[in-house]
């Protein structure tokens, strides 16, 4: 059998067909990446950029990463807002926050002064700024993770308000699920005709950059009665902002307390009664908050215990149940020193570890419900713990 020598193979001039990656596969892969990595993908192509900035992808990515919570820590000396992983706080390692210029609240503007964080929602932080001389107020909307910050928005002149009324301005921040936009709420407490106490309300929408008057607040928010503290802020939950309030001041009965819930979509109020187990006035104002998606109510009980209730079904008063009752002795707090505030900041996914702010100490309290272990955080920076907000890294935009 004759064997012919092998002939060299001819190269084909036809280029190989490109590999096709389905769009839904790209969507899925991108959604697994952390925010900073996703942002790098925007420069790959026009398609990548349009995908990453689409509301559907932003929402899906946020829901996937919502289980990696942070707290926005506010330093008192350098005026920085640093998003910090909760798990690192609970691990309680010795921490020193770096002086990253990006986290400075005052970014070189000479015509305004940072005042406070209004709120944090879906990865977007609302900052409150006053002009030099405190004649005007501005809002800034900031995503620390994508490093984007809006221009001065929500401008409001204070010249039309008497000087003594300006200290009774309080703001809140949340997301309107009905119109898919962010809104800020302004409460202004003042007196008309001598004794009539009125709380007027304005709502600012990021969609149109306008303030609008809505119906007056139906009670007196404790936030406006206790202007020296930052523990009575309106709390955001499920498209609503909620305040603890009273129907009269002075008040001497627990029956005067109520929770007022403002639906940001319909801009209407709902009133909710407090737990029936709350039957004795505490020595300091009680507070409300949100832990793991549940509305909570906490207060001092007979100067011996700290009690937390949670509403298992939002806006259903019958669903209140007592979640925690812990003695101050277990928390290693000398409660005989003076009146103090104790406010829950975060509850871990397994409901064992809790972070609490205390007005008696410069560090937050770490309490483990499972083994009754108590520690103090170990952060070398000076932190304003009552200004700390929940924060989740996201692709949320101010546009």
From TrEMBL:
Signal peptide boundaries: none
All copies of domain F-box associated beta-propeller type, residue ranges: 110-379
InterPro entries membership: F-box-assoc_dom_typ3, F-box-assoc_interact_dom, F-box-like_dom_sf, F-box_dom, SCF_F-box_component
F-box domain sequence ranges: 21-58
Domain of life the protein comes from: Eukaryota
Pfam family, one: FBA_3
Protein name: F-box protein interaction domain protein
